[in-house]
TrEMBL record:
InterPro entries: Integrase_cat-core, RNaseH-like_sf, RNaseH_sf, Transpos_IS3, Transposase_IS3/IS150/IS904. Residues 26-37 have a biased composition (Basic residues). Residues 121-283 form the Integrase catalytic domain. It comes from Nocardioides massiliensis. Pfam families: rve (PF00665). This is Transposase.
Length: 333
């Protein structure tokens, strides 16, 4: 209804001004006067300089011939040009090949099968260890110390650590060997794909001791969550310095920190117990003592707890690296 009004007013002023006065978007006015046609779009006319059908057949025959079928369009075009033959442009050759579904990479391509997602389960201490290496800033620019840390994924107990000036597979092997001498041999050891983690000395040690090796997928930090979380606890601690003055300072700090971490830090992932308590089997007794304290508090002032009796945080029954979905567990059962 408004289009005739716009047309009438446009006889006095231009269409733009008429649309502004009547509040009509100019694009809507033009679209209404020329409604879109439904159905397939009209076929694009053939350019006057296009190759004839027999010429297209000739070009395709050359491109797919035994001589040129394994060569790129650029190689074919240049070879023919050197021989004094010009069929068409390279873009036209590409267009003809695409029309026949003959375009694309024809060379053999490197294929890399997807790495298997590690799935590890620990139902008690001493079953699965996780280890990693992180850098500690030294006294000057470009100087870094290497902190090696091995922890038990069930108890979060740091079973071994060392600070060195370099990352070396022999240092890692010695650290793991000494830790197993003190805490026993685990069933599996998990790490990422660093050079020390995948080195022959470490692999041979685990093989000789019958320990399963597990590695994270490339560029997937979530495959090593326990070590990454421990490093975050270390580096986000208020007492963590911006830099260490010497290797001795770094070792002294780590000795104090890991002593605190193992024996004083209440870890949220293990029912707010210390890693040492879970690792050495005293967590159940401590939880019972906590529950008795909560029961006494409830008995003294039940009105403070509403309708719920206070419960001490439960101890975890398992620790997973990449826990499978319930559907996957049902399929493998």
């Amino acid at each position: 209804m408004i289009n005739p009004a716009v047309d009438d007013l446009a006889q006095q002023v231009n269409v733009k001004r008429a649309c502004e006065l009547l509040g009509r978007p100019r694009g809507s006015h033009y679209r209404a006067k020329r409604p879109r046609m439904h159905g397939p779009a009209p076929k694009r006319p053939t350019p006057p300089n296009a190759l004839a059908a027999d010429e297209q057949t000739q070009v395709l025959g050359v491109l797919t011939s035994e001589r040129f079928c394994d060569k790129s369009v650029a190689q074919t075009w240049a070879t023919l040009l050197d021989e004094g033959t010009y069929l068409c442009s390279m873009s036209t050759m590409h267009r003809l090949l695409r029309a026949c579904d003959a375009a694309g990479e024809r060379r053999r391509q490197a294929t890399h099968p997807a790495k298997k997602k590690p799935e590890l389960l620990a139902t008690g201490p001493g079953q699965v260890w996780s280890w990693d290496i992180t850098k500690l800033r030294g006294p000057c620019r470009g100087i870094w110390f290497q902190l090696y840390v091995v922890l038990d994924i069930f108890s979060r107990y740091v079973v071994a650590w060392t600070v060195q000036t370099v990352e070396d597979s022999e240092i890692a092997k010695t650290m793991l060997e000494e830790a197993m001498g003190v805490h026993g041999i685990p069933e599996a050891v998990h790490a990422d794909r660093g050079t020390s983690m995948t080195s022959k000395p470490v692999a041979q040690l685990l093989l000789d001791l019958g320990v399963d090796r597990s590695h994270s997928r490339p560029r997937v930090s979530n495959d090593n969550p326990f070590s990454e979380a421990a490093f975050k606890t270390l580096k986000y601690a208020p007492v963590f310095p911006e830099a260490f003055g010497s290797l001795t300072d770094a070792r002294a700090f780590c000795e104090a920190f890991f002593g605190y971490y193992n024996h004083e830090h209440r870890h949220s992932g293990i029912g707010l117990h210390t890693p040492a308590s879970v690792h050495h089997g005293t967590a159940s007794e401590i939880r019972a003592y906590r529950q008795a304290t909560l029961d006494a508090a409830h008995a003294a002032h039940p009105e403070r707890f509403g309708n719920r009796r206070p419960q001490a945080p439960a101890l975890p029954k398992a620790a997973w690296i990449n826990q499978p979905s319930p559907e996957a567990l049902i399929q493998t059962a």
